[in-house]
Design a protein that fits this description.
The chain is α+β, with helices and mostly antiparallel strands and 628 residues long. The chain folds into 3 domains: 2-173 and 195-219, Glutamine Phosphoribosylpyrophosphate, subunit 1, domain 1, CATH 3.60.20; 239-371 and 494-552, HUPs (Rossmann fold); 562-628, no CATH class. Helices cover 43% and strands 15% of the residues. The chain contains 28 helices and 17 strands. β6 (121-129) and β7 form a beta hairpin. α18 packs across α19 (476-502). The longest helix has 27 residues, at 476-502. 51% of the residues are buried.
Amino acid sequence: MCGICGIFSIGDSSPVSMQLLQEMNRTMVHRGPDDEGYHIDGPAGLAMRRLSIIDVEGGRQPLDNEDSSIWIVFNGEIYNYREIRTHLTRKGHRFRTDSDTEAIVHLYEDYGAECVTYLNGMFAFAIWDSRGKRIFAARDRMGIKPFFYCFDANGNFCFASEIKALLKTSVDRSPNLQALYDYSSLMYTPTPDTAFRAITKLEPASSLMCSFNGLVKRSYWDIPTPAAGEEEHKKSSYDEEIVDLIETAVKRQMVSDVPIGALLSGGLDSTTIAAIMARRLHTPLKTFTIGFRHKSYNESDEARFVATQIGSEHFEKIVDPFMVGSIENLLGIFDEPFADYSAIPTFLVSKIASEMVRVVLTGDGGDEVFAGYPTHFAFKLSKIFRLVPGWIRTNIINRMVLSLPTSFERISFDYKAKRFVTGADLPFERGHYWWKVIFDEKDKELLFTRDFLNTGFQDTFRVFDKHFERVRKCHPLNQILYVDAKTFLVDDNLTKVDRMTMANSLEARVPFLDHELVERIAVIPPGVKSRGFQTKSLLRSAVKRLLPASIRKGKKKGFTPPLPFWIRSELKSFVCDVFSYKRLAKSGAINPNYCKTLLEEHLNGVRDNNRQIWTVISLVLWLEKNPL
């Protein structure tokens, strides 16, 4: 695991500055505290920070081929690199190291841009091809590892694992107003945008070639999307096959030359991964979890039970509210507004784990692959609900639901019920989007100032709709899973895991996103993946011999802190300060009067506005550092 960055001088043809490369690289020491490396060759400069995982002694970067015509900087892990090495050795390639990085170099020699199709892993890398005078870069299929790029004030191509490195260049730092507008609905800036107008995210499963003739991008893979009714014929049982796929992915991803552990929430996904890992180790697996004092948010009891069942050496910590300074520092790690506050426990559990291991496996991605969110069957409920006469829904059911008292417990019934009835009559695609929205288009008319809105914005739904367009002919469940994988998974969940683990110099691996497993699950009949109103039917059935019934049948909770309570108590002073009229007005974008109402409603228990409040806080803190 590493942080990578580089410069290709195509705009002014000036030599690459070693000082600038060092400044960029050293913003990412947390991603690679073990080593740093540099290579400058005429118009190109590559740099990396290394967290040593495989071939600790020999895997230094940048790394070159036999005649030093090709150089690479690489972030991630290639799990099938030994098979690739065997294949390439037979073709006459000579290897100097036992690192997975060198396998990519020789693949590129033989296959050029097609080299990415041979890789099983999580990766973002850049190759300097000195013969062709070009940079080739690629990102893994599911978007596990990040890759940002831009053109600086002189037109030079720059890239990095994190935005903060690019901000050391002369790139235009103007905010991307549309991205900020979209962020207010989604809690993240959607790919390929960032909060900076001149900085772009490379899309998952994409590569780029940059030369003196310009930049060309291409997509090299996608999740299979069979049309409705064209999925494979249903088998009597998938259990053995699914377990084999998961075990194969876990086995691949346990390859490491340093200590390895697992993040354990006590839920189905992380428990499945940890249980398989424990069976493969000769010594007790180290597992790590975070708990909270509020019961509905606390999963430490479940995690402790799982640890006992699988015989792991378990470490847990009960968390009090974050210190204010720590919250601001944590939000700053993302380099752009990011409001998924499950980042808090993810950061804390990563901090604990990093004291004992260098690598952890997690259950992330299980929901998007196996249909694990309650929203994945909401469309079925909506169909049934719409059979009720409209006047009964509007005048009786909706009024009753919307009058339910507000609860601040995790994923409370009143929240789900209110969200459901207000979105039940929306078209299918809009209905799914509705479950994800923090501020909708009408809310944003109140959230933002008139001057900001006069800039002119596109409806944020377009972010989802462009992915729905790709899968219109698919079964509704497969449409939702595809769209979630292209939006929430990559820009929220995986972004959170990458930044929070790497901030603690910890590598996180995600077996459920092994692309071979993803490809297989995608074509299994939707009715097998989600039966009736049960989430993860396929996975629950497959692991019945592996996990206790209480875990297999448990409800999804989500790894979130009791922020609704914290805002009204320990964090009240901090929140009120950020929501002061002076700070909000100074932002140049946010309407202080509307935000005052949001906060008062929450503090008085009228409505749970915690997600809206946190979205505003993250945006305000970012705008204070990056004014309009």
